[in-house]
Amino acid sequence: MKQGWRFLLAAWLVAVFATAGALFIGEVMLMAPCNLCWYQRICMFPLALLLGRACYGEDRRGAVYALPLAAAGSAVALYHTLLVAGAIPTTWIPCSAGISCADQKLEILNGIQIPWLSLLAFLAITALLTVYLKRTSK
């Protein structure tokens, strides 16, 4: 096993749990995602596959390809978190019809909202991939 492999494995596990959580909320709890949630899913779902393949093959390139997805997901999740917290004006809401991005009804662990968990997952993946890439650089 190469040095730093456990950071890549941890990033993959975070992506798998976040993907499973998003699928559970959408498919089992039957809660339709808002527009910003869809953009975060577009970033997170490929991470679960890409990082799993990188772990299996101990391939550093998988982390290189995954890092921009994690950074983009972090940016969208940060925007969504600030929107839900009321730090962004409601005129900047990207959804004009359907489910509102600013109206989050699901809270877990006594008040933690889904955009906050998404932001935490993306930031953790970004940090783990950054550490992995630094430790495996030549």
TrEMBL record:
Gene Ontology CC: membrane
GO molecular function: protein-disulfide reductase activity
GO biological process: protein folding
Topology in membrane: Multi-pass membrane protein
Protein origin, superkingdom: Bacteria
Family stated for the protein in its record: Belongs to the DsbB family. BdbC subfamily.
UniProt KW Membrane keyword: yes
PANTHER family in UniProt: DISULFIDE FORMATION PROTEIN-RELATED, SPBETA PROPHAGE-DERIVED DISULFIDE BOND FORMATION PROTEIN B
Organism of provenance: Rhodoferax saidenbachensis
Pfam families: DsbB
InterPro entries per the UniProt record, alphabetical: DiS_bond_form_DsbB/BdbC (IPR003752), Disulphide_bond_form_BdbC (IPR012187), DsbB-like_sf (IPR023380)
Keywords on record: Chaperone, Disulfide bond, Electron transport, Membrane, Oxidoreductase, Redox-active center, Transmembrane, Transmembrane helix, Transport
Coiled coil (UniProt feature): none
Residue spans crossing the bilayer: 38-56, 63-82, 114-133
Cell compartment(s), UniProt: Membrane
UniProt-recorded name of the protein: Disulfide bond formation protein B
